[in-house]
Design brief:
- The chain has a two-stranded antiparallel ribbon.
- The longest helix is centred in the C-terminal third of the chain and has 33 residues, at 82-114.
- The protein has 118 residues and is mainly alpha-helical.
- The chain contains three helices and two strands.
- Keywords: Bacterial flagellum, Cell projection, Cilium, Flagellum.
- One of its GO terms (cellular component) is bacterial-type flagellum basal body.
Length: 118
């Protein structure tokens, strides 16, 4: 059955790819929990500045790769599918929104500490 120029097998294929992509980040995040970013191997401590910088660099990299995929798709590159572009864009959006939430929590904690009486 055709639905707007896309047959149902193509839609099912896209859904399968999206489900597979949704499962991958969970496995990666579990692996990342085992080895913290910026962890000092001898003391087991995590340097906050290094962890924050690494996280921001990772978000930046995800956004750059999503932008590159979008540009390649717009230029007509046959190796880039629309589903890849949409998934990369959603990953970039989610990582950016998570970064904003962390920033908001840090600002809130800072304001709470600054309003404490000594």
């Amino acid at each position: 059955m055709k639905a707007g120029g896309i047959d149902s097998s193509t839609i099912e294929s896209m859904l399968a790819q999206m489900r597979a992509a949704a499962q991958r980040p969970q496995a990666e995040s579990i692996a990342n929990l085992a080895s913290p970013i910026g962890a000092n191997k001898s003391t087991g401590k995590v340097d906050f500045a290094d962890a924050l910088k690494a996280s921001l660099d990772q978000v930046n990299q995800v956004q750059k790769s999503a932008e590159t995929l979008g540009k390649n798709f717009a230029l007509g590159d046959d190796s880039v599918s629309l589903s890849d572009v949409m998934i990369a864009g959603q990953k970039a959006n989610i990582s950016f929104q998570a970064t904003i939430q962390v920033r908001n929590k840090l600002v809130s904690a800072y304001q709470d500490i600054m309003s404490m009486q000594i």
